[in-house]
Amino acid sequence: MAQSAEKADISEKAQENTAELCTERIIHRGIVESVRSAMPEEAELYDLADFFKIFGDRTRIAILWALSESEMCVCDLCMLLDMKQSAVSHQLKLLKQSRIVKYRREGKVVYYSLDDDHIRRVLNLGRQHIQEQR
Amino acid sequence: MAQSAEKADISEKAQENTAELCTERIIHRGIVESVRSAMPEEAELYDLADFFKIFGDRTRIAILWALSESEMCVCDLCMLLDMKQSAVSHQLKLLKQSRIVKYRREGKVVYYSLDDDHIRRVLNLGRQHIQEQR
DNA sequence: TTATTATATGAACATATAATAATATGTTTT
DNA sequence: AAAACATATTATTATATGTTCATATAATAA
Q1: Which of A71, A92, B31, B36 is the most exposed place for a label (fewest CB within 10 A)?
Q2: Claim to verify: residue B53 and residue B79 sit in the same structural domain
Q3: ipTM beyond cut 0.85
Q4: Residues B27, B60 share a domain
Q5: Which residue has its C-alpha nearest to nucleotide D17's C1'?
Q6: A26 and A53 inside one domain
Q7: Both A58 and A6 in a single domain?
Q8: Using a CB cutoff of 8 Å and minimum separation of 24, what contacts does B94-103 make?
Q9: In A 7-46, which Cβ lie closer than 7 Å to strand C?
Q10: CATH number of residue B108's parent domain
Q11: In this predicted model, what pLDDT tens digit does every residue of B87-107 receive, in sequence order?
């Protein structure tokens, strides 16, 4: 009843503008509704994606891997990774903003390290995963 | 000796072309060398980054969150996420290629689900992390 | 067979992102 | 104070990525 009403609604919309909305029919209404109620808020989806996005770059993974071995300064990272200082600083800024690394200053030198063991655990899960896929 | 030779070499290059190489001085040679020996191969860095990259998108996170609740077909996902079917299929293809989701066909309908508990653990670690940051 | 439905794919476009060059900032040393 | 140095930032450019449209494929029903 509610279902056929909605179907009518959908085909109406489809006539107006096929491109505007998802005009698919629901196949498993019950599942869709129960999953919908388990979905988080928009902001949480974006935060979660943004968190993982940081790990999704070769340069940042290299930096994180290095920092998982030892605290390092920017200059050391440049040399290790054979990269321009500004490129390294850019990535460190992102890592800093996401609270994935922390830093301490000692005179002119800034030392970076992993923010907490949480980050190390995420890294290790990823390492495990790709090991298994080989 | 080797060191001063290298320095001379670097400043020479710097004169020719400042942009060519990392011209920074090494501050902590010992650390750089020991970390260098702990770094993985290039391919492993890329694989790890590619793995996390998949989680670094709102749409894919939404799909994964949904699939962590229940197996779903493409059509259901379209309705749940209010997205075009082709957009959903494109993302499912990426998830499939990375072996993050698996699928089974039942007639015309294709059901997707998380590939293994590994994926669920990665997701949950991420969820925990952003919870703590709030 | 043809029609219908569910999903997949290719190409194009718009946006996001990483690296670079050039420059600025902040710290120490002289 | 000025010079030297380590790091940060801004603007730009090249590349990567997500969504859309159009179309293709696969399975079922008539």
Answers
A1: B36
A2: yes
A3: no
A4: no
A5: B57
A6: no
A7: no
A8: B94/B54, B94/B60, B95/B54, B95/B60, B95/B63, B95/B64, B98/B50, B98/B51, B98/B54, B99/A133, B100/B54, B100/B64, B101/B63, B101/B64, B101/B67
A9: 24-25, 27
A10: 1.10.10.10
A11: 999 999 999 999 999 999 999
